[in-house]
Amino acid sequence: MLPLTGVRVLDFSRVLAGPYCTMLLGDMGAEIIKIEEPARGDETREWGPPWAGDPADRMSAYYLCANRSKRSMTLNLKSDEGRAIARELARGSHVIVENFKPGNLAQYGLGYDDLSILNPALVYCSITGFGQTGPYSEQPGYDFVIQAMSGLMSITGPAEGEPYKVGVAITDVIAGLFACTSILAALRHAEATGQGQHLDVALLDTALAALVNVASNALIGGAAPARYGNAHPNIVPYQTFSGSDGAFAVAVGNDRQFAQLCRVIGRPELSGDPRYATNPARVQHRDALVEELSTAFAARASGEWVAALLAAGVPCGAVNSIPTILSDPHVQARGLVDIVTLATGTQAPLVGMPVQFSATPPHSAFPPPQHGADTDGVLRDLLGKSEEEVERLRQTGVV
Length: 399
Fold this sequence. Notes:
Elements: E1 8-11, H1 17-27, E2 31-36, E3 51-52, E4 59-60, H2 61-64, E5 71-74, H3 80-91, E6 95-98, H4 104-107, H5 112-118, E7 123-128, H6 143-149, H7 170-193, E8 197-202, H8 203-209, H9 212-221, E9 238-243, E10 246-251, H10 255-264, H11 279-284, H12 286-297, H13 302-311, E11 316-318, H14 322-326, H15 329-333, E12 337-341, E13 347-351, H16 375-381, H17 387-395
Parallel strand pairs: 1-2, 1-6, 2-5, 6-7, 7-8
Antiparallel strand pairs: 3-4, 9-10, 10-11, 12-13
Helix pairs in contact: 1-7, 7-8
């Protein structure tokens, strides 16, 4: 039995942060019912190419990445009957996840205050760009905007030049992770006390939390952190270097590792130089040291340096492309790439659950569902609707 077996999650979220959160809950055994509007469903279904599946029932790779381990039900929340069905489902659910604008679901009678009356133990998680309160709460919040506003872009990119965004929607992923862990904590509280609660998860808030030491540097030091490209503001050398054939990453975390690096490159005297003997000194004399190391590293291929440095206990690694790391023997050995069979029979590789459980290993209970594939089953099995009633709901556009 998986850890969250018996937990039912009603998922009103779309795109990435909410769906990523509910996918993780589903991988750990929760029953996820993904509620989608009848006409199109989650807009990421059309965010291709690339695509998987038959042309008539194709799914975008984007949609696939965050929607396994779920069932899909279509429901028209603009109809009275649709809202009534949503309330029926909420009454029998443990968790709701939604990413509507603040107050929108409340207008449908589906806000936390409305549903907690029906189900006092309900954990209701709202994910928005800026939260339920505050002067920006009504603004739309997209990952790129949050990366800019949170300061993340100000510390990303080369020292000289414009700020860069991270190459993945990282603030959505971070918000999804915070939402998932907060839901688990609130579930434990609800099980112990019978009291649910409203979780207010904001992309901006969680992005600031993810700045960790950089935010702390600004708070304690009182100055805006600078951009260092691939280097580190507090540790040197901790950056990419170029071998004769390309880049590799070096992460020296202490003075002992620095001494080992100096021996590997044939410059043992550098570790005794007062300018470089300690990390604070290396930070102070960053430019001179990086120039010395860059000259040394240019003499050999990056793979040779990585092998020699690892043998000496110095943390380092190749700068991989995404296809390279996905096919890496270590990644394969860890089982990080799952092969799922879609409803069309197409096999699709997906990045799986990244945590190894010794007793209850998560798994993909369902492949990412076709739009509305489980509507009839949910209505019949969970709400006791007859075949005739299901057909009537379909004909009237409720589902």
